[in-house]
Amino acid sequence: MNNKAIAGIAATLAAVMLPQAASAFDRGCGRAAECYEKVRTPAVYKTVARQVVVRPARREVVRTRAVMGYRNEQVMVRRASSHVVHSPAVYRTQHRRVMLQPARTVYDTVPAVTRTVYENVVVRPATTKWVHRRGLLRRDKMCKVRVPAVTRRVARTVVVRPARRVRRRIPAVYGTVAKRVMVRPATARKVHTPAAYRTVRRRVVVQPATSRVIEHPAVVRTRHERVRVSPRGARWVRARH
């Protein structure tokens, strides 16, 4: 049974049941000013066109392999380097006459020339003194007596020639000394060693691999369907007396 037949049956049933519902409702109205009755409304349908995807859109990746080949290349076997070569200094011994002590002037002291002389020196000068004496008759008497001077022989040093300073010239003193002298100074030179290469056959990519994307659009067709716009329901309408 299709949708149109179902809709017709539903409309017929609604026409039969509405008068009965109205009479039942009227029984309770009496002398009311206004009366309303409940009316059933059928569902509303309509036919719509809808786009249906038969096959969705997709992407296809197409890849191409790389093209390989061989090529000769220079590769480094040993890197370039450098080192420093040191040469020591060269020395030799030289003998030469040098001044060990410069000339100078000195002063010598010549001692004084002396001699010893002897002379009499008065130790105590001549004096007089009173001396008590007794005479022949035992008489006391005082006599003034001369006391001679007392001398002594003493030695005295006499300077014959005084001390003096004598100037004396001392010549320079020379000698032979050995001295180590540098004939050639130490040197340092930088020696460079170049890098070493060799030829090798290497497999290389002549043409790289590629890939491309192919877009396939979706396949869509139109389908007609009957759809319900509003569902079946009921509404109140004003009833006639």
Question: Summed up, what is this model?
Answer:
This protein is mainly β. Helices cover 10% and strands 69% of the residues.
Task: Describe the protein in words.
The chain has 241 residues and is mainly β. 10% of the residues lie in helices and 69% in strands. It is built from one helix and 18 strands. The strands form nine sheets. The protein has a two-stranded antiparallel ribbon. The chain has a two-stranded antiparallel sheet with strand order 2-17. Strands 3-16 form a two-stranded antiparallel sheet. Strand 9 and strand 10 form a beta hairpin. The two termini are 41 Å apart. 0% of the residues are buried. Mean pLDDT is 82; it is low at 1-28.
Supply the key terms.
241 residues; mainly beta; 1 helix; two-stranded antiparallel sheet; elongated; 18 strands
Q: Give the overall form.
A: elongated
Largest β-sheet summary: 2 strands, antiparallel
Number of strands: 18
> What is the percent of helical residues?
under 10%
The first-to-last residue Cα distance is 41 Å
Strand content: over 45%
Summing up helix and strand content along with how strands pair, one would put the structural category as mainly beta
* Low-confidence sequence ranges: 1-28
